[in-house]
Amino acid sequence: MNEAQTEITIPHLFRCPISLDLLEDPVTLCTGQTYDRSSIQKWISAGNFTCPVTMQKLHDLSFVPNHTLRHLIHQWLQLGSQFHPGNNNSATIDYLASLKHTLESHETSLENKLEALEKISVLSDEYCSFRKSCFQQLSFLSLLLELVFGSSENHMEFVELALSCILKLLPIVNLEPLNIIKDESKLEIFMLLFEKGTSSIKTSLCVLIDYSTTSSQTEEVCHVLGNSQKLVHEIVQVVNQNCSEVSKAAIKALSALCSLQSNRESLVRAGAIDGIITYISECETRHKNLAPLGMATMKKLLVLDSAKEALVNNPKGVESLVKMVFKVCNQECSESAVGILSIVCCDFGSAREEAIGAGVLTQLLFLLQSQCGTKTKTKARLLLKLLRSKWSEESMQM
Question: Which ranges form a coiled coil (predicted)?
Answer without folding.
Answer: none
